[in-house]
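Annex B. Sample input.
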Amino acid sequence: MRALGVGILGLGNVGAGTVRLLDEHRARIEARLGASLTIRRILVRDPARERAVAVAPELLTTDIETVLGDPEVAIVVELMGGIEPARSHILAALRAGKHVVTANKAVLAERGAEIFAEAARVGRAVVFEGSVAGGIPLLRSLREGLASDRITGLCGIVNGTSNYILDAMTRSGTGFAEALAGAQAAGYAEADPTLDVGGGDAAHKLALLALVAFGVQVDPATIPTEGISHITAFDIRAAAELGFVIKSLAIGQRDEHGVGLRVHPTLVPRSHVLAGVQGAFNAVLVQSDALGPSLYYGRGAGMMPTAVAVVSDILEVARDLLAGLYSGTGSSGHVSSFPSAPTILRPLADVVCAHYLRFRAPHVPGVLGRVAACLGRHGVSIRRMSQETPSDDGSAAMVMLTEPVADGPLAAALVEAALPVTRLRLLGE
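Annex B, continued. Sample output.
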């Protein structure tokens, strides 16, 4: 039986899960492939560190050249995370004639043009199912299942940490800080949760989704991104009274005017399919011309869910290798033509939707009229309004729902109003 060697870079949670799956499913893999997959080398920082999976000590190395210089290693699996040294190792692996599997959304979102160009030059594959939505076969579904269709939009929960926090706030009535502490205690949030709660992680994933779904290269730094740390228990309650739940969504839309991408907390109607996504689960709703809406739901992170995606990618590359599909240059795995220049996104100012506005204002005559006048001068119509009982400091929270309006005019109106305000967009308008 033919054997294909695998080199793994990184033995953290996902690396350990990958090793475990390759070992536990060895017989099934061999039956499906007609070949065996053998782990030849594993790059680690500290060989003496205790691991979540037992591996033979002779497999561990701190030298990348030991992995890349092994002629039996056909597939390199990068699971280190971050930009460097992951980027350098991926490029070196491609130049050494290895195919690459990675779950690293950051390096692909920020350095993907360079990586895919090199893969095309040397005729090697780069596959990355595990980089978005964990074990959900989302990218493969977009790339293959919808290959005959035209995807026009996607909208979903792609960061489990933010969803866990907002779900906890919704269920228990707690504030953001308490819900974040609970997520950290449960292992769903890092000690420094900025990338998750600030929206940066979702923006990286949305850039990759846009690449696969729309065929556009996007710099994640250009995606309008808002986090969830400003959401309060009051906002959660007010949304519920209005018939909504608050979710952090990654949204992509394509039409004749171009591509628009954004990440922000959103009021989702309670009847919407995304409203029921709880805990750290992910879900992405895709819209395409022929099929219409389709939903992809499951565990979006964690050792074993992500390892499932990684091992599936290894198997896909192995099957193609055995079939002789990588015999020359001009192929970059499953992104065949990476655009030469980043796409300029449609400005957020052009996005039209209804908005939730929460003002904190002194409880004095004329304030409500001044706010309404500012909104009206910029063409913003109010659909619904309520005001809470004034607090001890004499201020009160005013909540407004607007009719659908472009972001730009509303932003100008809020600047003119000159009051502290929390603004959240509504889904489905």
